[in-house]
Amino acid sequence: MAMLGARLKPELEKAAKARMSQGGKAQGHHGKKGGRGKKKPLGGTSPKGFRARASRTADVAAAAVGMDRRTYEKTQAVIASGNKKLIATMDRTGKAGGVCNALLRRLPAL
User: Fold this and answer.
1) Does the N terminus or the C terminus of the chain have fewer Cβ atoms within 10 A?
2) Local structure of residue 33 (DSSP, 8 states)
3) How many distinct structural domains can be found in the chain?
4) Does 41 reside within a domain?
5) Helices 57-64 and 69-81 meet at what angle, rounded to 10?
6) Does residue 36 lie within any of the structural domains?
7) What percent of the chain is modeled with pLDDT above 70?
8) Does a structural domain hold residue 49?
9) Which of 100, 92, 53 is closest to 72 using CA atoms?
10) Distance in angstroms (rounded) separating the CA atoms of residues 76 and 36
11) Domain residue limits at 92
12) What phi and psi values does residue 77 have, to the nearest 5 degrees?
């Protein structure tokens, strides 16, 4: 499952960059009322400070494979380590937390 998420993430990041590049262009650089210390009105019905959880590419990739974002990030860290024993343990048990902790214990202290 985590391998599928790893394949999805680059495509999701590309789509996110395209959305970000279009963000300020809709109403000009500062929008209609924002810029130079002026508060820009919130769009739509979003409460102040609201950020949708699905706006992170890791959230979207994790949801696509049926995981929480943090669990997805742990599985990606274990896979990136290349330690076949830890990867096999994670696959066998279906748990990423303990395996990720074991990986962190093996890293040299900074």
Assistant:
1) C
2) T
3) 1
4) no
5) 90
6) no
7) 64
8) no
9) 100
10) 42
11) 2-31+54-106
12) -65, -40
CB 13 within 8 A of CB 21: no
pLDDT, one tens digit per residue, over 24-48 is 555 555 555 555 666 655 555 555 5
* Amino acid of residue 25: K
Amino acid at 108: P
Here the tokens at position 57 are 């590419």
Give residue 94's pLDDT. Answer: 86
In angstroms, the CA 90 to CA 69 distance is 17
Please answer whether residues 86 and 15 qualify as being in contact, where contact means their C-beta atoms are separated by less than 8 angstroms.
no
d(CA 66, CA 80): 20
Residue 92 has pLDDT above 80, yes or no: yes
Which structure tokens are listed for 20? 């970000």
Q: Are the C-beta atoms of residues 89 and 103 closer than 8 Å to each other? A: no
- Collapse the DSSP code of 10 into the 3-class scheme (helix H, G, I; strand E, B; otherwise coil) and give the result: helix
In a domain, 69, yes or no: yes
Cα–Cα distance, 8 to 10 (Å, whole number): 6
